[in-house]
Amino acid sequence: MKILVPIKRVADPDNANKVKVAPDGSSVTSEGLEWKLNPFDEWSLEAALRLTENAAEKSRVGEVVVVTIGPKDATQTIRQGLAMGAERAIRVEGDDAQLDAWQVASVLAAVAKKEQPDLIIMGKQVVDGDSNVVPQYLAELLGWPALNYAQSLTTDAEGKTVKAQRELDTGVETLEVDGPAVITCADRILHPQAVKNGVTPDDFTYPAIEGGRYATLKGIMKAKRKPIDETTVGDLGVEAAATVQYTAFELPPARSGNTTFVESVEELVEKLHADAKVL
Amino acid sequence: MTDILVVAELFEGKNRKTTLSAVAFARQVAEATSGAFDILSIGEGAGAAAQELTGFGARKLLEAEIAGGYVAENLAATVAEVAKGYQVIVATGTAYGKDLLSRAAGKLAAGVAPDISAVKVEGGELIYTRPMYAGNVIGHMKVTTPIEFVTVRQTSFEAAAPSGGASPVEKVAVQTDAVAERLRFGGLESVKSERPELAEAEVIVAGGRALKSEDNFKNVIDPLADALGAAVGASRAACDAGYVAADLQIGQTGKVVAPKLYLAIGISGAIQHLAGMKGSKVIVAINKDKEAPIAQVADYFLVQDLFDAVPALTEAVKKLAAS
């Protein structure tokens, strides 16, 4: 089974409140913040690694290829993916802050046509733009089904058919999909028994984690020797024009007022009743 | 003279109230541009659902009856075909709206303005406002393709009220899509609740990791929610741990809410959680740790063990209601 996992760097999402806007409102700057792997991409990569390994025997049984669009600096993000366990990587030279969803999807579609993966597993959204549009565009460009918001995935050993549960606002939907397909993951995909591939014993339980697996020292050393193909939007033959245009950015108004610390339940109820008038 | 198409959200053959936020957007844009809007009901039970939307000011109601559970691939080709007659296509930005509209937009190589919180008309163009970076940056943007797809944040567009009159209903041709055959719907398991929906609730009681178990969540959070007639919500940590169903998650990853009163109980207040609730009018935190980041947005903060504070608060609320 071969899985393509698109990944993107983002300004440290745990410090997203420190992101700044240029004085003329023309751009968002994340100076001083570390680049991190988009959390949804990290979870998707974890799911892809689980689908392509025999976890009981700690062996790889498939291939995971990570792909990013970004400048040379983005290689750091790729190395993280390789250190977690992906076999190889592709970096498409490009300005990740300037491309819109349609252009990103068009580039990823060109990469997918070359790579011919069984599945594409990706974050449902990138936590800077917060759009949740690219996966559906990508599936449409490839003529593939899309399975958004998966909380569990079960494949056969070849990854040709995927049984999934996905999270909608109205509940949890069960779907079966014939690949190749585009899949996006919800948070619950990290549950110890959420991913099954017909190779790792079904009763195998992964450790409970809040992100993707940590890269081991050995993994980090190995990652340095793993291949990274470099290409460009032009080499891929992608000429997609932008479909949206940002005209300005600003910081949101701060919540007014300060926090009133109260000592007791009685005082809280009194304040909510008499001052805030919400009880 | 903007022609707008609202895509209604159906669930079990009925319109979800979410639909009325997209209608509110459509009314606003139609008024500002002397245009008009139509509403497309699509999916299983669309015929009856379309009738429910008469009297909201639509020029006409379109129905496309398509059997089966929700799968975007079953619906997107029809949405895209109907969309060709309009400049703006809008749905509310639920999982359904985002999933379906992005797929339909892809068929037309059209741009999407996702999860917008406001719209204005400037020099004949629609300028959309949308939260980004977990609500820490506000972006202003426009769509540059002839057909624009938009999903609106439900809490930013108050549900449209009926305006009287009646709208004629028209059937539209259903388009099929070969790719749909590669997906098989296997059922939907929904948690039925008597409580208000999160996005519509005036009061929300939300619990976090500090509840420690599903039983504690039920025994501590639920009675307070019942006493207040509130909706129940949760942090990602509480949903991941299985204390409550995933569809109660509030935050960047889950639902965005803006009630009059939000009680954050045993929730530390990660940025991702704040993204989903900082638009609430009054925020109360109950937490042992007064340094918890929830203090950045809390109006009132009770520094106390939640297992002592919440049952006492429940009793106090009941007493107040009875007085």
Word description of this protein:
The complex is a heterodimer of chains A (279) and B (323). Chain A has 279 residues and is of the alpha/beta class. Chain A has a single domain, classed as Rossmann fold, CATH 3.40.50. Chain A is 23% helix and 30% strand. The model of chain B has no long low-confidence stretch (mean pLDDT 97). In chain B, the strands form four sheets. A seven-stranded parallel sheet of chain B has the order 7-11-6-1-4-5-12, sandwiched between helices. The longest helix of chain B is centred in the C-terminal third of the chain and has 17 residues. Chain B folds into two domains: 180 residues, HUPs (Rossmann fold, 3-Layer(aba) Sandwich); 125 residues, 3-Layer(aba) Sandwich (Rossmann fold), CATH 3.40.50. In chain B, helix 3 crosses helix 4 and helix 5 runs parallel beside helix 8. The interface between A and B is large, with 83 and 92 residues.
How many discrete structural domains of chain A?
A: 1
**Shape, per Cα inertia axes of chain B:** elongated
CATH topology of chain A: Rossmann fold
**Largest binding interface between chains:** A-B, 83 and 92 residues
Following the backbone from N to C, one meets helices and strands of chain A in this order, namely EEEEEHEEEHEHEHEEEEEHEEEH
**CATH class (first level) name of the largest domain in chain B:** Alpha Beta
The parts of chain A where pLDDT drops under 50 for at least 5 residues are none
User: What is the fold-level CATH name, i.e. the topology of the largest domain in chain B?
Assistant: Rossmann fold
- Low-confidence sequence ranges of chain B: none
CATH class of chain A: Alpha Beta
Strand order of the largest sheet of chain B: 7-11-6-1-4-5-12
- Assign the CATH architecture of the largest domain in chain B: 3-Layer(aba) Sandwich
Tally of alpha and pi helices of chain B: 8
The amount of beta strand of chain A, in percent, is 25-35%
